[in-house]
Amino acid sequence: MNKKILKVSFPEKCIGCELCVLAAQRQVGKASFEGSPIRIMGGKKGYDIHLDPSVNDLDVNKISEICPKGCFSVEEGGQEEGLEFKAEEDV
């Protein structure tokens, strides 16, 4: 069975609600934003989504499904690298 990998497919759709951050933290039993494997950073033209590779140790389907704008996708296997995604306007 391949490990499921959380990917940021549509970073430009992010509205900064941080529901994904809370979903990740809920899975590790924390009620704060500190130390989350997902970070949402406000930029000049939107939000940047930073993923730590440790996010893939969690139930990534739950994290993906909670996003109201559909920013994430879940893939089977693949590279487990911490990646930074920026809205197209910021690139």
Short descriptors:
91 residues; 5 strands; alpha+beta; 18% helix; two-stranded antiparallel ribbon; 4Fe-4S ferredoxin-type domain-containing protein
Question: What do these coordinates show?
Answer:
The structure is a single chain. With 91 residues, the chain is α+β, with helices and mostly antiparallel strands. It has one domain (4-90). It is 18% helix and 27% strand. The strands form two sheets. A three-stranded antiparallel β-sheet has the order 2-3-5, covered by helices on one side. Strands 1-4 form a two-stranded antiparallel sheet. Helix 1 (19-27) packs antiparallel against helix 2 (60-66). The longest helix is centred in the first third of the chain and has 9 residues, at 19-27.
**Beta-strand residue fraction:** 25-35%
> What is the N-to-C order of secondary-structure elements (H for helix, E for strand)?
EHEEHEE
What gyration radius follows from the Cα positions, in whole Å?
Answer: 12 Å
Number of strands: 5
Number of domains: 1
Report the major sheet. Answer: 3 strands, antiparallel
Total DSSP helices: 2
Assembly of the depicted chains = single chain
Average predicted local confidence, pLDDT: 88
